[in-house]
Amino acid sequence: MSGGKAIEHLAQQGNRLHYELGAPMRHHPNCNFSFSGLRSNATRIIMQKEKEEGLQEGHLLSCVTDIAAAVQHAVALHIAQRTHRAILFCIRSGILSQTNATLVVSGGVASNQYIQRALQIVTDATNFNLLCPPPRLCTDNGVMIAWNGIERMRAGLGVLHSTDGIRYEPKASLGIDISEQVGQVAIKVPSLEVSLNELSTINL
Known about the structure:
InterPro entries: ATPase_NBD (IPR043129), Gcp-like_dom (IPR000905). This protein has about 200 residues and is mainly α.
């Protein structure tokens, strides 16, 4: 089981309210992601609890489910807030249409149901559609690339029948970097109070 999957599995039985980790980069009004501070805080809590419980290597903390729940919540909150700001910036700047706009989330992040629910709340609030591939297509790069190829072939989009004259780039640009512009606009993300499940409430 991968680390992310293990956290999601443990978090289902935990209470995130027992540990306050908070979302990273609250005072940076941009769309950048950083988990280094969250990792440091989680590591500090784990080391402190290990010392308190006199835990030996290979044994689980008694509070492992609560820590997992707190970590998962902080990650989901961080991703949701940054994505929310990105959507608001795109709407305000006219980059995306406000009708039939879709947020596509794929990869390992998309396989986490808690994060999916947080992003669904954001897209509901901004009238966006949320599209996430099935979890079985989210955790293996080879499968994701193959699935994308199948969908493109079915739609007849971007399918090359010959590679003659094609130049390959080891690091392809994903477009124009507008992160500085986003930071200057400094969009304040509205707070959304929502219930993710019967026991957990997330503030976005």
